[in-house]
Amino acid sequence: MAKIEDRKAEHIRICMEKNVQARMTKTGFEDISFIHRALPEISLEDINTSMEFFGHRLEAPIVIEAITGGTEDAFKINAALSEAAESLGLAMGVGSQRAALEKSKLSSTFQVVRKKAPHAFIIGNIGAPQIVGRSDISEIKKAIEMVDADALAIHLNPLQESIQPEGNTSFKGVLERIEKITSALTIPIIVKETGAGISFQDAQLLEKVGVKGIDVSGAGGTSWAAVEYYRSEIHGNLVNKRLGETFWDWGIPTAVSVIEVRAATKIIVIASGGIRTGIEVAKAVSLGAEASGLASPLLKQAVEGNVEEELQVLIREFKTAMFLVGANSIEALKRKSLVITGKTAEWLRNRGFRPEEYAYRGED
Predict the structure, then answer these.
(1) 53 φ, ψ to 5°?
(2) Whole-prediction pTM value?
(3) Distance, CA of 58 to CA of 90 (rounded, Å)
């Protein structure tokens, strides 16, 4: 059984060195197209990409997703990510804080985030298995204080826990525990998946217990079954390796999950899971997400020191997409028509949605 900080180090190394992206499952954004406007009737320089996010102003609807923490290697990565978040006016989530709660010397790998980003919107992080069966919230408060968090993410990772040799698959009572936490804390609670998406049924349950935001983290990007496949290979665990291979592409595609959660709730939706370009950020926002998150594309850039440049490209792509559909604000972008075809349209129809409704949305 690997120590938790060793697992975190292995996760970083595997994500850096191996191809852990989904193989067959796509995000669904490839089936979604904007209607190009040859007469956008706006100027690129006048486009406003800023928006309100839990009462906090972001310069663009982008969240630097939870990547790492709890290992000494994470210090440099989190420092680079948080500096970029502060500089560009973006939100940032930290990785699971469990390791630092168990071993205080690792707290600095998280605390650096607030030191480098004193004004950014920072999201703390604790796992669902760590909240089950615990009646007090003292550790949760410690996690919040550790990064002076503006919100707390509770991550759901049943797929990863099922594949991980050390996995904790006790998820009974998670919803009840989330409800108690939302009632006890003053900051908003965001529930996030970890690469397998959230359905409208689960979204409705989460909204009912007081959750203020859902980060869908859908399928089509990094597969944590794949990450645990490689960990099992390293440690010679053939059973778990086989499980990782079988469930490599498990989950709800990101675009589908965004549509389901948006239709089911009125809470803030974050689209993540395989987001790679500013066009995909624009598509997610037009589908109804308040913001889009990405992690994997920034990991290598954070290590190499190019993360801010990578994000600047993403923001420019996003702004250019807004220009080409004639949207000078986030609200205008949400009214723009989208054509949904292929497997994504088929999936949505089988789930009771009408993808053709997005093609004509009464835009100006």
Answers:
(1) -135, 105
(2) 0.96
(3) 5
Here the CATH number for the domain that contains residue 118 is 3.20.20.70
Domain assignment of residue 93, yes or no: yes
pLDDT digit string (tens) for 9-34?
A: 888 889 889 999 999 999 999 999 99
Closest by CA position to 42, among listed 342, 332, 334? 332
- Cβ contacts of residue 217 below 8 Å, gap of 6+? 65, 192, 193, 194, 195, 196, 197, 198, 254, 272, 273, 293
- Sign of the C-alpha dihedral, residues 146, 151, 152, 158? negative
Quote the tokens at residue 243. Answer: 């499980």
In the three-class reduction of DSSP (H, G, I as helix; E, B as strand; rest coil), residue 355 is classed as helix
Query: Of 257, 84, 267, 86, which is closest to residue 190 (Cα–Cα)?
Result: 267
- Residues 199-215: tens digit of each pLDDT: 999 999 999 999 999 99
Q: How far is CA 319 from CA 64, 192, 214, 283, 315, in A?
A: 18, 26, 24, 12, 6
Q: For tokens 């939870």, name the residue.
A: 66
32, part of any domain: no
Beta bridge partners of 143: none
CA distances from 9 to 18, 78, 176 (A): 14, 14, 32
Task: Specify the DSSP class assigned to residue 186.
Answer: S
Domain-embedded: residue 317: yes
CA atoms of 298 and 303, how far apart (whole Å): 9
Query: What is the tally of structural domains in the chain?
Result: 1
| Helix/strand/coil for 341 | coil
d(CA 299, CA 67): 7
C-alpha to C-alpha distances, 270 to 36, 133, 281, 297, nearest whole angstrom: 25, 28, 10, 17
Q: How many CA atoms lie within 13 A of 153 on its CB side?
A: 31
Residue 273 belongs to what domain range?
4-27+47-334
Angle at 44 between CA 38 and CA 49, to 5 degrees: 115
357 falls within a domain: no
* 106 token code pair: 């690792």
Q: Give the phi and the psi of residue 86 in degrees, each rounded to 5.
A: -65, -45
Length, in residues, of the chain: 364
* Strand, coil or helix: 74: helix
